[in-house]
Specification:
Blueprint lengths: L2 H22 L15 E6 L1 H4 L2 E10 L2 E6 L3 E11 L8 E16 L7 E10 L2 E4 L3 E4 L1 E3 L10 E9 L2 E4 L2
Parallel strand pairs: 1-10
Antiparallel strand pairs: 1-5, 2-3, 2-6, 4-5, 6-7, 6-8, 9-10, 10-11
C-alpha cells in the first residue's frame, strides 16, 4: 500500500472518529409526541354564580376581528387524595377529583395565535340577559410535551365572577 493511500485512510479514520465523538457530545434529542391542544379561551364560572348561569357566549376579539362562541358549561372539580408510592420517576401515583361548585367551559377559536385578545361574555341569570365589559389578555402557547417541543396550540383563560370577567390566574 502506498504511503498516500495509508495517509488517506488514517485521515478518514480520524475524521470518522471525530464525527462520532462530536455526535455523542451533543444534547440528546427530545421525544415530541403528536399530542395537540385546542386553540381558544377557557372560562371558569365561580362557585357563587355557577348554578345561576345559563346560555353563556364569549365574544373573542383580536386585530379588529370579533367572533362569538357559545360555551357549553360542565361541573368544575379539584384534585383530592393524591398519593404516590415514592419519589422516583417509575413510582405509581393516584388521585381523585371532587366537584368544587364551579362551572367550566371552552370557546374554540380556530386560528388563535400568540397575541392579545379582548374577551367579553353574555349569559342568562335569573331570566335576565347579562353582558360583561371586555378584558384584554394574552393568548399563550400550550406545551403538553414541554417547551423543547414547541406549542401545540394557543389559549387564554378568564373567570366569570359577580363583578364580571377577569383574567384567570
Amino acid at each position: 500500500m502506498s504511503r498516500s493511500a495509508g495517509s488517506r485512510r488514517t485521515r478518514l479514520l480520524q475524521t470518522c472518529v471525530a464525527l462520532v465523538g462530536a455526535s455523542a457530545c451533543t444534547a440528546p434529542s427530545v421525544g415530541c409526541t403528536d399530542i395537540g391542544a385546542a386553540n381558544g379561551v377557557g372560562v371558569t364560572v365561580v362557585a357563587s354564580l355557577a348554578s345561576e348561569v345559563t346560555g353563556l357566549t364569549l365574544t373573542v376579539c383580536r386585530a379588529g376581528d370579533c367572533r362569538e362562541a357559545p360555551v357549553e358549561l360542565s361541573h368544575g372539580s379539584v384534585t383530592v387524595g393524591e398519593t404516590c408510592s415514592g419519589n422516583a420517576p417509575d413510582d405509581v401515583c393516584s388521585a381523585s377529583s371532587a366537584p368544587d361548585g364551579t362551572s367550566v367551559g371552552f370557546a374554540p377559536v380556530a386560528d388563535l395565535a400568540e397575541e392579545s385578545v379582548a374577551v367579553s361574555a353574555r349569559y342568562q341569570r335569573a331570566r335576565r340577559s347579562v353582558s360583561t365589559a371586555r378584558v384584554t389578555l394574552p393568548a399563550r402557547g400550550v406545551y403538553p410535551n414541554g417547551p423543547d417541543c414547541g406549542p401545540a396550540g394557543y389559549q387564554a383563560a378568564v373567570r366569570l365572577t359577580e363583578s364580571g370577567l377577569e383574567i384567570a390566574r
